[in-house]
Amino acid sequence: MTVHPPLLWPAYKSTLLRAPSKAPVPLQLSVSELTGPTFSDRPVEAHESDLTRQGAIGERLIVHGVLRDDTGRPIPHSVIEVWQTNAAGRYANRADQHPAPLDPNFTGVGRCVTDAQGHYRFQTIRPGAYPWRNHDNAWRPAHIHFSLFGRAFTQRLITQMYFPGDPLFDQDPVLNSVRDPAARQRLISAFDLSATEPEWALAYRFDIVLGGQSATPMEP
Amino acid sequence: MTPSQTIGPFFTHALPYPEGPLVVPLSQPHSFWVRGKVFDGVNAPVPDALIESWQVTDEFSGFGRCPTDEEGNWALHTVKAPYLVLSVFARGLLNRVVTRIYFPDQEQLNATDPVLATLDDTARATLLARAADDGYTFDIHLQGEHETTFFAL
Ligand SMILES: [Fe+2]
């Protein structure tokens, strides 16, 4: 049974005309699905993991965790992309018309690479909730968008990380499209006192597990 | 496993990059464009999708990424492979959908392809690009009468 949301989820209105109506065809995997890009031609710079480097306004946070495959093995040297709103709940994106202030010192975009143990770490600020027009008085709970590559095309995943205890969870059809409560819980990060930086930043932990086979042999 | 969530409408400042559509440089011999549009269930263009490609042969492997524009158009500049594998992300897609692009002029490869062999004519036809002036055209229909064949991995 998949942990992923159904593509047709009427509570999230945009799925109505975009979800395919036919069931996906099972695929005999080839080397094209069992491998994936490494981005050696587009190296990630160390500063890209610090979204606060221009002096963003907001509550400073460390967001970190371990990237694993579904056998529990860490996935080292894998690119992670993130994007989020500023502290006021607005994206640095022309299409975002929410009348909340822009922060000229925050793009809300970052990248990093997992280390040899599969660990990643970003420094950012807490994103804000924002309204959207899905239903009457609809608000998205604060979240950070995550884009993961893993080792193979099969493992490619885009998801969202939430913060514990958000009062907007119950009315959010995006989070609630994940039907398995345990799987839904895995999208919610945990406050991590051990990773806080005294006199500097709070910390949240978000571990990520990618399904899907890959051709890469096991590392020793 | 970590569940998927939609890419949402606000990724264009974050994920696309200038060389994203260039799987190979413009100067590469035997390179061409694959251009297409993404449509929804009432044939309206999808202006906020992200297309990603991956292709593997013994000689070359390459990744491409292109967002759709206001008219739903995307384009990737690449070289031949037996097929390209494609992910489509969009607002309203709670998970990506996955398909393949085959080339109509690689008849022998297509005739022996084990995946194409399992499909009926209608499903197979949605995976074949069409020849165009500077390469190929490949439209993606997320839903409806012309729905593209999508795969479960
Ligand atoms: Fe968002």
From TrEMBL, chain A:
Single GO term (MF): ferric iron binding
Pfam families the record matches: Dioxygenase_C, PCDO_beta_N
Coiled-coil blocks: none
GO biological-process terms attached to the record: 3,4-dihydroxybenzoate catabolic process
Keywords in alphabetical order: Dioxygenase, Oxidoreductase
Stretches assigned to the Intradiol ring-cleavage dioxygenases domain: 63-91
Keyword Nucleotidyltransferase among UniProt keywords: no
Keyword Oxidoreductase set for record: yes
TM segment ranges: none
NCBIfam families listed in its UniProt record: protocat_beta (TIGR02422)
Record-stated family: Belongs to the intradiol ring-cleavage dioxygenase family.
Name the record gives this protein: Protocatechuate 3,4-dioxygenase subunit beta
Lineage: Bacteria, Bacillati, Actinomycetota, Actinomycetes, Micromonosporales
Automatic annotation (TrEMBL), chain B:
Lineage per the UniProt record: Bacteria, Bacillati, Actinomycetota, Actinomycetes, Micromonosporales
Organism from which the protein derives: Rhizocola hellebori
PANTHER family: DIOXYGENASE, PUTATIVE (AFU_ORTHOLOGUE AFUA_2G02910)-RELATED, PROTOCATECHUATE 3,4-DIOXYGENASE ALPHA CHAIN
Matches recorded under InterPro entries: Intradiol_dOase_core (IPR015889), Intradiol_RC_Dioxygenase (IPR050770)
GO function term, MF aspect, one: iron ion binding
Name recorded for this polypeptide: Protocatechuate 3,4-dioxygenase subunit alpha
